[in-house]
């Protein structure tokens, strides 16, 4: 298969050095994002912005796999949802502080990622996608049956608590800063991974797996490591979301959520750092503002999928980057 | 009436029968997926939606045109198959040269559109569909009560599966199909119209899904969500069977249906997850699936 036909159309150069052109472009885009995060709660409903940040982190984690390793996971909701449940349970029933509850959630999703990855990583392309669909459906049914998730009701009234026993998260400003800090941490973790020697190997695997194997890389281990990292970051998003919205429900672990994260990343731009963030913002706003139209949201989402695949596979950020000749 | 492992025979064989019924649908659907994958190299995520459309098409034909079950059994697969051909011509042919994953994403998007539209007009609740008169009632076999319609579904889908297998593996048309799967350029050089063959194959695979939908209509209620509910299980069936073999997907479909039915008797809590657990075990032992050649 020719390179141009590969899943990701935006191989990003390594902009680690701020004095290179790529480094400057990434830096400018990052500053713009920081300013927007700072201004957003004053122009939009802060609760909505916090949710968007959680989904942006979720999509960035997903993009780490599809954009930089070329693995399409169609079951990423299992990591978001399980971490969300475990974090909510830890905060509510065990009475852990929010940062510890989130850590427990992340550990759980990373462990789940290790198992799911070990099962699926040996399969290629479409098989990999189908296996992730099936595994996430299994987790979904587990969450329906397991007593601690409370079935249809979910875990409600999750306490927000005090971070490090000091900062009261029930105060809107503190909660917003906390969420923004976690998002930035996750975003920079993805950035750091992608621009590390490890990330270069991942990209090599995406471009030409047999060649990477012939160069002596243990491809399966690199893929598994990327999968676990992606699962952990998706879990971080899910756990944080549980603290922000104060509940965990079946929606987070359901199949529709797995589809939505694909949509966010595809629409924003696969294999771009800012694409998933933009895509998440668009999809979450779409759901928010079109909620009154009921099932038409699903129809519109489907139409966006079709349009993205047929007309602009680079996504919003990919197209902007191409127009400006920027590597963002 | 007697008992097996402390379970009344009625309950055991009743669930076994239900399992066989579900197995028939799994077999028909995974067979369609396998046929489409063989020619187009696309996993047809729209398959569940097309199964649902099959059931709805039968329901609408009866409701508005008074067309009965038997006619629907012929008309519906053709109508939905033609719609499938339109989808292939309008959308799928444009992604055939791209990474296969784009095909998966595209068909997922189409499934969302179709299901969203049906949910808009019919809500989430089910529409009833009467069992055709000739197949109402049932017979007592001594150890269980066998409703006629259910026996018909099992026999008929086994027949359809077998015919499909026979056509692909044993006839000249099937030989062309298999050759075109192996090496489309060479088959084209022999003067066979491969793009048309691809289009018709997609139409046929979709027709199988629609047929399963018609068969399911009198058993389950006709609901917009019925396709989305079944597609993940069918994917798992395909992974367990492996994509290499037509016969493999048929056998796996029936067997897993039965296993699921038995789980409902002995450990009901796990009945929803058993297929996925089996998939995980098979992946550990044989990553290519039970009948597959390459992972």
In short:
Chain A is mostly helical. Helix content of chain A is 69%, strand content 1%. Chain A has a two-stranded antiparallel ribbon.
Rg on CA atoms of chain B, Å? 19 Å
What is the chains' assembly state? heterodimer
Secondary structure tally: strands of chain B? 4
Q: What structural class do you assign from the helix and strand content of chain A?
A: mainly alpha
Distance between the termini of chain A: 26 Å
Distance between termini of chain B?
47 Å
Strand content of chain A: under 5%
Q: Main sheet of chain B?
A: 2 strands, antiparallel
- H/E element string of chain A? HHHHHEEHHHHHHHH
Helix content of chain B: over 70%
Strand order of the largest sheet of chain B: 1-2
Helix content of chain A: 55-70%
**What would you call the structural class of chain B?**
mainly alpha
Name the shape of chain B in a single word: globular
Major sheet size, sense and barrel closure of chain A: 2 strands, antiparallel
Order of helices and strands of chain B: EEHHHHEEHHHHHHH
Computed CA radius of gyration of chain A, to the nearest angstrom: 19 Å
Please describe what this structure looks like.
The complex is a heterodimer of chains A (328) and B (295). Chain A is mainly α. Chain A has a domain at 52-252. Chain A has helices at 21-43, 46-68, 77-92, 98-120, 125-145, 172-194, 197-207, 209-214, 219-245, 255-268, 275-289, 296-310, 315-324; strands at residues 162-163, 167-168. Chain A has a two-stranded antiparallel ribbon. In chain A, α2 crosses α11 (275-289) and α3 (77-92) packs parallel to α5. Helix content of chain B is 71%, strand content 3%. Chain B has eleven helices and four strands, in the order ββααααββααααααα. In chain B, the strands form two sheets. Chain B has a two-stranded antiparallel ribbon with strand order 1-2. In chain B, a hairpin with a 2-residue loop joins β1 (3-4) and β2 (7-8). The chains are: A mainly alpha (328), B mainly alpha (295). Chains A and B meet through α5, α10 and α12 of A and α4, α9 and α11 of B.
